[in-house]
Recover the amino acids of this structure.
DNA sequence: TTTATTATTGCAACATAATCGCATTAATAA
DNA sequence: TTATTAATGCGATTATGTTGCAATAATAAA
């Protein structure tokens, strides 16, 4: 399915890259300039994830957050990083800190989802 | 609020400890012998979490899983561990592997939720 | 044992997150 | 300019989890 460029996609991607933080669907719908339907936002975000332009983070609040990929490397081995969710300013940011782990023999990892929750510097 | 011992609580806790793996509400309802209302299961699980008898894991499938605490130490400093979710047998298990990280100055962590998803040994 | 207190439970309603079917619109190729 | 089909809006639907309330039952008090 060949992708097409639309105002909606551009606006969402632009917002995510400018924010520099991961955003949830409702935050995007709230903070974006144009009116975009909820289902459409999800579809756009999911396609971005499929294309490796954005990565998805599921927080312990049960919501999905989406972050513009910067060092998520497409060809290179994806180096997983921690995420920090501030319960005060309700943002999620990608941390530099990488996730290191070793698994028991026979286990195969496909996804890594690591989130630290608490209060960020600005809110402390 | 003083806690009371009931057949429901005992059955849920017994199932969790026997399974040795984290279970979701629907899995518990499905695999437990007696009939327990959905809301009740959640209430029981939440109270177990409050009491530190069980710990909660939110997976990237957006669901909550509950695991009987073994080394989650009540008094001792809680040492966070990784969790592994097998998409084949649909189970989540606590790994021995501890989670290590260092945060930027000013950040304060309250919760740690780290999940690796893939295929477990049995299902490989 | 009997009675009183109130934690626990079931049930229905509610809240929220996310997805899906379908008709319409519009980006892009022909 | 026309044809093709990806993208969108809208309403309905599914899924997870919580909450209010009346009924039930565990435990303390008499
Ligand atoms: Mn990230
Ligand atoms: Mn665990
Ligand atoms: Zn903050
Ligand atoms: Zn498995």
């Amino acid at each position: 399915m060949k992708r097409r460029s639309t105002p909606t996609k551009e606006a969402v991607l632009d917002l995510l890259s400018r924010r520099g933080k991961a955003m949830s669907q409702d935050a995007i719908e709230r903070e974006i300039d144009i009116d975009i339907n909820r289902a459409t936002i999800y579809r756009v975000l999911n396609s971005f994830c499929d294309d490796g332009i954005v990565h998805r983070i599921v927080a312990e609040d049960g919501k999905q957050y989406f972050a513009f990929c910067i060092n998520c490397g497409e060809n290179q081995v994806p180096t997983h990083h921690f995420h920090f969710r501030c319960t005060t300013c309700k943002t999620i940011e990608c941390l530099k800190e990488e996730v290191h782990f070793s698994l028991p023999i026979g286990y195969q990892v496909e996804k890594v989802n690591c989130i630290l929750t608490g209060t960020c510097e600005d809110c402390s």
Observations:
- The domain at 7-123 of chain A is CATH 1.10.10.10 (Arc Repressor Mutant, subunit A).
